[in-house]
């Protein structure tokens, strides 16, 4: 079809965790690199938002002392549970389950790690808590082939074919979802067996889902797929990961594989012969975010997951994609990406990139190198599609010389899950279709939601409806990068337009708290920031052109 969709790039969620092996030398065993995969779940994945910097340093100092005294998994696990309870990081049952799930990996990695407690907490909580500079700067190698002069795509002729692409992300099926249970339990995930029942004065979890820290029952995902007819027909599906629920403190490999096969079968049942291109999310593995690079062998490797994915997705993917899926490819991934893009440029193909974590949310060096690659191959890239944040947003790429010419945009599609306080949703992209000379760029997109208030009402049903069309709602002349750039600055100056965006950003269920000026500027800055830790991208948003402080309220809003 000329799109090079054998080149749909399943940019795994562990792009945030693993740096490419060919970009710089890894340590002989790579354990300090692997540590970065173990630490991030401790705060976000378990909802441990009260893990302060002092508490973090106390925790890792105790861990460090215990391991030096006696590298015993059970002993360290016991200490970690006591510290978790003492510091009120999470409920006791979550502390116990999480420690038991993570303890083997943590002990194995930490005993070989060169990170100090300060460095570990800097990695976990940010530079204000400590400085983590191991492999902080590296550069990808680009071919010596000169970059072609940028040439904006020509608008399609009237009547030219248009393709519709279904975009699914962050389904987060909760096998244990139970109607009527407490949606405000003490655990990081509620509305499920074990959540208990709500007080008599409060309502329980709804039949189709709930506005809280809850994931979805299978029936809601089935209703989504069953009700796709009015949004189609679809030429293909982009499915960017995160299949299991957020009960990450107690997941087994069997749980993850059950989620993979159940949801894959469901997608195949309702979409039939439509090609599906999946990417891997950070929640597919257990422990969460745990995607060891290829040199980790045996039971601690991810081979159990990759082999199962290859088997489940074999009807959809060509042999070369199944090969890269089986090896995981977290090491050398960006160099592989460069090679694929260069081959596509040489052939004259256009490319779509799909992935889970968007580039602006990745570790700085990875993010900046990815940004560099996008700038080099801007004439080959026709679209980028990510998920992970659960909300409806985008990230703009600029030329590296001036940071003023918008050259690409990554679309961040809304999640199917309600986590946290959202309506379920999905996205449909209109793409310049298949014909000689097609640009294959995004022409427009539509977002569909299930209004839970209506669906859970007495006599209500699961009725999925279109929430909005992008160009119509925002008054865009097209869906090219410059139009999204201009929209950000229009929203800066037009409060009503921004409030429309804020409503749609949350899939029709915004928080009760108003989004004032600091919130608005932080949100708009995130749309300009496809490169992590790059405040200069937002300088024109700020009063008097001042640079935002990454530690201030101007910084990127936290993820769900």
UniProtKB/TrEMBL annotation:
EC number(s) on file: 3.1.4.12
Does DNA repair appear among the keywords? no
Query: InterPro entries under this entry?
Result: ASM_C, ASMase/PPN1_MPP, Calcineurin-like_PHP, Metallo-depent_PP-like, Saposin-like, SaposinB_dom, Sphingomy_PDE
Catalyzed reactions per annotation: a sphingomyelin + H2O = phosphocholine + an N-acylsphing-4-enine + H(+)
The membrane spanning regions, by residue number, are none
The record ties this protein, via Gene3D superfamilies, to: 3.60.21.10
Q: What class of enzyme is it?
A: hydrolase
Keywords, A to Z, come to: Disulfide bond, Glycoprotein, Glycosidase, Hydrolase, Metal-binding, Secreted, Signal, Zinc
Signal sequence extent: 1-23
Q: What is its main location?
A: secreted
- UniProt xrefs under PROSITE patterns: SAP_B (PS50015)
Its annotated compartments are: Secreted
Q: Please list the cofactors this protein needs.
A: Zn(2+)
- Which parts of the sequence belong to the Saposin B-type domain? 49-133
What is stated as this protein's family in its record?
Belongs to the acid sphingomyelinase family.
Function (record text): Converts sphingomyelin to ceramide.
Name of this chain's protein: Sphingomyelin phosphodiesterase
């Amino acid at each position: 079809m000329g799109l090079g969709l054998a080149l749909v790039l399943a940019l795994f969620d562990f792009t945030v965790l693993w740096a490419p092996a060919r970009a710089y030398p890894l340590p002989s065993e790579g354990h300090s690199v692997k540590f970065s995969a173990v630490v991030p779940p401790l705060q976000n994945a378990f909802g441990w938002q009260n893990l302060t910097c002092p508490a973090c340093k106390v925790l890792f100092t105790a861990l460090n002392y215990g391991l030096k005294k006696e590298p015993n998994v059970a002993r360290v696990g016991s200490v970690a549970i006591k510290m978790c309870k003492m510091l009120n990081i999470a409920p006791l049952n979550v502390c116990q389950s999480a420690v038991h799930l993570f303890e083997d990996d943590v002990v194995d990695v930490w005993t070989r790690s060169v990170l100090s407690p300060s460095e570990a907490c800097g990695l976990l909580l940010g530079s204000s808590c400590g400085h983590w500079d191991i492999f902080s700067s590296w550069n990808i190698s680009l071919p010596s082939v000169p970059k072609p002069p940028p040439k904006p795509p020509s608008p399609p002729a009237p009547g030219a074919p248009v393709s519709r692409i279904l975009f699914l992300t962050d389904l987060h099926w909760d096998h244990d979802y139970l109607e009527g249970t407490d949606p405000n339990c003490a655990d990081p995930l509620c509305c499920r067996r074990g959540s208990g029942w709500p007080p008599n004065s409060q309502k329980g979890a709804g039949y189709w889902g709930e506005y809280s820290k809850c994931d979805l029952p299978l029936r809601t995902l089935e209703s989504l797929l069953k009700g796709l007819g009015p949004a189609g027909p679809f030429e293909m599906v982009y499915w960017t990961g995160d299949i299991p629920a957020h009960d990450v403190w107690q997941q087994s490999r069997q749980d993850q594989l059950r989620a993979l096969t159940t949801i894959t079968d469901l997608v195949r049942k309702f979409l039939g012969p439509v090609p599906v291109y999946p990417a891997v999310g950070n929640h597919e593995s257990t422990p969460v975010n745990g995607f060891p690079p290829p040199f980790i062998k045996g039971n601690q490797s991810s081979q159990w997951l990759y082999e199962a994915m290859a088997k489940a997705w074999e009807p959809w993917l060509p042999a070369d994609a199944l090969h890269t899926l089986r090896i995981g490819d977290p090491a050398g991934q960006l160099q592989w990406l460069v090679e694929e893009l260069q081959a596509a440029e040489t052939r004259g193909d256009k490319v779509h990139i799909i992935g889970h974590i968007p580039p602006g949310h990745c570790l700085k060096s990875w993010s900046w190198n990815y940004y560099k690659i996008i700038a080099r191959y801007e004439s080959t890239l026709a679209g980028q599609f990510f998920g992970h944040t659960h909300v409806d947003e985008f990230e703009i790429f600029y030329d590296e010389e001036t940071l003023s010419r918008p050259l690409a945009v990554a679309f961040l599609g809304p999640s199917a899950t309600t986590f946290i306080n959202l309506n379920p949703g999905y996205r449909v992209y209109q793409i310049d279709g298949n014909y000689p000379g097609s640009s294959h760029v995004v022409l427009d997109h539509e977002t569909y939601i299930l209004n839970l208030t209506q669906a859970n009402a007495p006599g209500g049903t699961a009725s999925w409806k279109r929430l909005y069309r992008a160009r119509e709602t925002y008054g865009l002349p097209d869906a090219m990068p410059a139009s999204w750039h201009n929209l950000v600055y229009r929203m800066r100056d037009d409060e009503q337009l921004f409030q429309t965006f804020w409503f749609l950003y949350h899939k029709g269920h915004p928080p009760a708290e108003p989004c004032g000026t600091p919130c608005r500027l932080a949100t708009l800055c995130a749309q300009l920031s496809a490169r992590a830790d790059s405040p200069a991208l937002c300088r024109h948003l700020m009063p008097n052109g001042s640079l935002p402080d990454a530690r201030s309220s101007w910084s990127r809003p936290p993820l769900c």
